Amino acid sequence: MKNLKLTNLTLKNFKGIKHFELQAEGENARIFGDNATGKTSVFDAFVWLLFNKDSNNRSDFAIKTLHAGKEINNLEHEVSASFLFDGRPLSLRKVYKEKWTRKRGAATAEFTGHETDYEVDGVPVKKKEYQETVDSIVQEDVFKLLTSPLYFNEQMKWQDRRSTLLEVCGDVEFEDVLAFNGELAELPTILRGRAIEDHRKIVAARKTEINKELERIPVRISEVQNSIPDSDFDSNALQIQVNEIEAKLDENSSLINNIKNGAVITTKQQKLRGIEMDLQQIKRDVESGSLDEVNRLNTKLQEERSNVSIMQSKKQQLADSTSYRSERMNNLEAERKKLLAQYKELDAKPFSHNEECACPTCGQDLPEEQVTAAREKAESEFNLKKSTQLEAIKTQGIELKTSIENIKNDIEKEKIAMADIDTDVEKKSRAIAKLEEDIEKAKDNVQDVTQDGVYQSALQEQAKVQEEIKRLQDNAQDAVADIDTQNAELRTRRSELNSQIATQAQVVAAEKRIQELQEQQTELAREFEDIEKQLFLTESFIRSKVELLEERINSKFKHARFKLFAQQINGGLQEVCETTFEGVPYSSGLNNAAKINVGIDIINTLTEHFAIRAPIFVDNAEAVTRIADTDSQLISLVVSEPDKQLRIEQAPDADSEVA
């Protein structure tokens, strides 16, 4: 068990407290003061020193001292504390101050923000090292649980309170609940590995679907029953009559074809087809000569137009090539100018030589002949290198000049070729215009076949044969009309019979559908009963688990009791976390004294679980006549109207009774 005790807490310029020092020496202490004298600020300072927040878990609270509603500048706001941690001394100090910066050229400094200094055991440290020291003692969320009687019940969400209790006391295992309630033996088979809540969601959703289906099925049955038509027909007898009617219709169809396909009519129709073929041949013969000339001229026209298109395409290719060669020639000209400049610059470059007249090893003057020989060698090498470079530049320049001349020649050739193409295109255009005139003249010379005597005689013969065929067909139409009337009556009777057959089939289908719906209704009712049983078993499991869980958790506390589930109107259970004391809920009806003592009772249990004991700050301690037993150090903040300045008393050990 770790043990943290506060020996000293000092405040300077913190939340309006100019200076305050609590000499607790690891013992219980009481701080008296009237309202607004700074009692809670002491607790705020203690929490801020450790976690940069106030006692209400806020990180944005005001620390700086105010005068006439405005912050006082250039004050350092300091909190320091000394502890005994497992018998070893530990001191922490934190200073919050303004940062003033004078920019270059400015006469005065400007406020540019705040900064915080940190010390551990009197040694300045970085914020990260400081926080690591605090964390090595206890984590922030655990520390607040152990130092404030109201934190657990008033600042934690109920979900977090519930999680904390389950962490401290442990959850109830599935097997424990089964052993506790023997009626749940078949539950594992029903769940098939699913969690209780997941299974309840599944069956609840299915239950809703079944209810909807059970409500809809009677309506569907009623709709089907209302749609059943009155029918007492024999379907087989009706079908026999339909078959007989269809056979008679087939017989009449064959009879009509025989009447329409008489021998005389067939002969006349063959003669008519021959006349039509003669008309087509006469037309071809009359128009053939003049149309051939038109077709020949059209073919020639298309050929000439195609040739013009090919020439224009070739000209465009030559134009693109000329553009590319011109750009290439310009680039080579620019490159040749650069080479000429290089040649002139290199040719004008004089020989220079730094003569060494002394030996680099011994420092004595070299003989004159050695100096002269060195200079001549250097000059010879310089001239050789210069000559080689000039020759290389000259060779490259000649090559560029040759390439430029070749490109110029190619461009001239392409220009001549394009001019030739323009000439050819102009000739072709004149030829095309001439062909178009010839085509129009040829069309005017095409003969009109309708003016031909042979063609007119054939037309008269065609009309005569068509009239003869019509007269023969009219005589046959009277017999065909009688048969058509009989067929119409037969088709009407067939439709009536088919309608009666369809009605009877509708009756059979409706009766089958009603039977299916009734079977579905029975199956859904059986499934509904099974789901009700599953829901009952899962609710029994939850209630048994609630009983075991609340018993286990409540056994860990002396005064506090916890309600972890609430009964809903529909009979289900909802997860909650409500602290009670002697049957009174913490959130309604519990007085301040009971709230504080219940909080201390919770701290005692949490202290054992987390294995660390820390100072407890009891705000509004004047409401408690007897504070619950605890082995932790108690710092009580007591409202005392006569004390206009904070006053400290060493407190006796807390009474074990509870208000």
| Total strands | 16
Termini separation comes to 29 Å
Q: Mean pLDDT score, rounded?
A: 85
Number of distinct helices: 13
**Could you tell me the strand content as a percent range?**
15-25%
Order of helices and strands: EEEHEEEEEEHHHHHHHHHHHEEEHEEEE
Specify the structural class: alpha+beta
Estimate the helix proportion, in percent. Answer: 55-70%
> How does the major sheet shape up?
7 strands, mixed
Please state the overall shape, judged from the principal axes of the Cα atoms.
flat
Uncertain runs are 654-659
Radius of gyration, Cα only, in angstroms? 58 Å
Briefly, what is this?
The protein has 659 residues and is an alpha+beta fold.
Q: What can you tell me about this protein's structure?
A:
The protein starts with a strand and ends in a 9-residue tail after the last strand. It is an alpha+beta fold and 659 residues long. The longest helix has 102 residues, at 453-554. The protein has helices spanning 39-51, 127-137, 140-147, 151-154, 158-169, 174-180, 187-191, 196-227, 235-260, 263-347, 368-444, 453-554, 592-610, and strands at 2-14, 17-23, 29-33, 66-67, 70-71, 77-85, 88-101, 110-120, 123-125, 561-567, 573-581, 584-585, 612-613, 616-618, 634-639, 647-650. The model is unreliable at 654-659 (pLDDT under 50). The strands form four sheets. Strands 1, 2, 6, 7, 8, 9 and 13 form a seven-stranded mixed sheet that branches. The protein has a four-stranded mixed sheet with strand order 14-15-3-16, with helices on one face. Strands 10-11-12 form a three-stranded antiparallel sheet.
